User: What shape does this take?
Amino acid sequence: MKVNGERLLTDLFQLRQFTDTPGEGVTRFSYGQQDQKARAYLLKEAGAIGCAAETDALKNIRIGMPQNTSGRQKVVIGSHIDTVRNGGWLDGIYGVTAGLEVMRVLKDCRLEYDLELVIFAEEEGSNFGSTMTGSKFISGDYKEEDLDHLKNDEGLSLRQILENPSEEELRQVKWDFSELKAMLELHIEQGPVLEREGLSLGIVETIFGMRVIEVEVTGVGNHAGATPMEDRKDALCAAAECILAAERIVKPNGHTVVTVGRIKAEPDCSNVIPEKTVFTLEARDGQTEKIDYFINQITAAIKRICRERQVECQIREVSSSEPLKLDPELSKTMERLAAQKKIPYRVMDSGAVHDACMIAKHAKTGMIFVPSIGGRSHVPEEDTRPEDLVQGAQFLLEVAAALTGAE
Ligand code: HGY
Ligand code: MN
Ligand code: MN
Assistant: This one.
């Protein structure tokens, strides 16, 4: 059994054109027009091999093989197709497209277990600042009330964007995990490790956890020219000191990472001392206690700095997910297969979070990485060698064929 590399790469080249920022990376937020186009492309390809698809109230899509029968346990291949702003062409959609290719190869095989391809909605959190939203409703981590908590920059809630799904429709989003034999997610590494060590496959052991907080600093707006320096309560300078304090607190530790990726000053005019500044700060690590330790240290520093500067600060939890150890038995199976195929691989952690985290709490889950060129991701430069993309898909096929007893 072999994947068709040409076909896989053609799909990926076709899909990368569904972006709101052509020429400046891929911007494809869930529920947007480009997302619709990518979904339509994938559903057409899946329909061409006789697959049936169902879209749930969160717009997660489940695509079943023609030979699936009700009542059997299923193997799921899943990932996402949404991106960050000006992101890369492979993050998420590579795993979905490779899964589609696997289904094409297995479409005429006899399977002992059902096989499903799942497209998780809103994994990046680009709309609402909360990652893995679609899969958090599947796992039950998110409940109905979160439809109202999650709001985009225009103030639209997830409930409004989904056009007010009914209670029953929401209930059906949650999976019955007893039906799941295993889930596999194939993904680009998004970091430098595999390339640096000259390896072509990663088998993921632990996916980092993360906590995201939003910090709102309120000072006193005033005229940029007429206000002496000693009379200022500048919300942006206070935020800047908080952000550098966070970097200093976390820097010399080796594992935990902290990032401030979004900051907004109001009224955002060059000749007005900012009255308010809002920024997000996220911390990630393979251990929850480390994440909590650093978030607590940073929160204390933010409060101290704001007190000293006589500005107000509000700190709000935006989202969180626990570090997740993936299934050791499935990882061992994949290690044996990689060794058998003489594929240079290593077991490794993932600093990026993935929908696999949400599923791994309830069912056997495995993740496979392929190298990222220059270790870059979430940027237009994101790329992976075609031979690595094809080899990763071939490996996914072998693992899926073994798990479903395909012949
Ligand atoms: O942020 C992440 O780790 C993922 O790309 N959503
Ligand atoms: Mn991803
Ligand atoms: Mn991502």
The chain is about 35% helix and 25% strand.
